[in-house]
Specification:
The chain has 92 residues and is mainly alpha-helical. It has helices spanning 2-12, 16-48, 51-57, 64-69, 80-86.
Length: 92
């Protein structure tokens, strides 16, 4: 009986291509979730800044959401303030 069960498990197990596709989908979802989390974090830091500091960066409070969505994902991995400074050319 155990030989039959083992053989069934081996033949019904997903092939390597299916596992690779599944891992790729999970990886993309994880990266998307992390990007969103980092953008929310940057937005929260920017919201805490006073208007004069935001003006120095080159944005107004109403542009924070659009500004954060335009950030390069590599920039949001570090400190939120440095990400804002390094991407200030993106908002015009």
């Amino acid at each position: 009986m155990s030989v039959y069960i083992t053989r069934q498990l081996l033949t019904s197990a997903p092939d390597q291509a299916t596992r690779t596709r599944t891992l790729a989908v999970l990886r993309r979802r994880l990266h998307a979730t992390l990007r969103q989390w980092r953008r929310r974090k940057v937005a929260a830091v920017l919201q805490k800044l006073d208007d004069a500091t935001l003006d120095d960066i080159g944005i107004v409070r109403g542009q924070i959401g659009r500004f954060v969505q335009g950030l390069n994902p590599r920039n949001t991995a570090g400190d939120a303030r440095s990400a804002a400074r390094s991407s200030m050319h993106k908002v015009g």
